[in-house]
Design a protein that fits this description.
eight-stranded parallel beta barrel; elongated; alpha/beta; about 280 residues
Amino acid sequence: MRVTIHDVQAMKERGELIPMLTAYDYTSARIVEAAGVPLVLVGDSLGVVVLGYDSTLPVTMDDMVHHIRPVVRGAPSAHIVADMPFMSFQSDVKEAMRNAGRLMQEGGAHSVKIEGGARVAGTVKRMVESGIPVMGHVGFTPQSAHQLGYRAQGKSAETAAVVVEDALALQEAGGYAIVLELVPAEVAQIVTERLSIPTIGIGAGPHCGGQVLVLHDLLGLYTDRDYKHSRRFANLADDGIAAVSRYVDEVRKGSFPNDRESLSMNGEKLEELKTRLAGSENG
């Protein structure tokens, strides 16, 4: 059975902390599914960690749909949340609904995530009324990085109040959960205590109702990135580089593949093949 937004709310009401991770393809989805992750985000972060862009802004709707589909197949029990990419919802409510519909109808996502607070609350309300479950995202919003800067939000009393107000506006609009990114732990605690829906933190301290990380960061698949708010639970980049280096070395030495790793032909059939080839040469 798929995890639903009602299951997510029940987790909060039971006091369970909610783990959430990103996945961008069938293989990564299989990993998080096997580990029992209930919420899987197909984030527009795929632009950076999979497609090699320097931000999330170039990610398109077609990119998102393409990556959601294998994640849905690879994680048959998890609730799949799809990011709405840059400019897929900002300009027009009808366009936002149409694009959210694509993520669910074509991609197979079960809900969408939208960045922004009070300014997008009207859009969120209309989407929810149309049957589209929406997860909010406030604090630092990567799609607004050129405007906000790559820095924490809510560090002053004034800006912290905005974070709280944004979260409340999204809850009022019908959002079923809210991501809090790069806000002080004290602010995240206030938001979490004031909301009746779950908060999911990333760089927002330990008081949120759950946590989300980018899978590639968790697994240590990058050697050149180390975020303060993240934690490497493995160092697979180092392991992968070492493994590939051994492969390159063994191919060059001729020790891969060995006899055990090679297919063998039946001796009688091999002799028949040689006879056939000899006959064709003589002919």
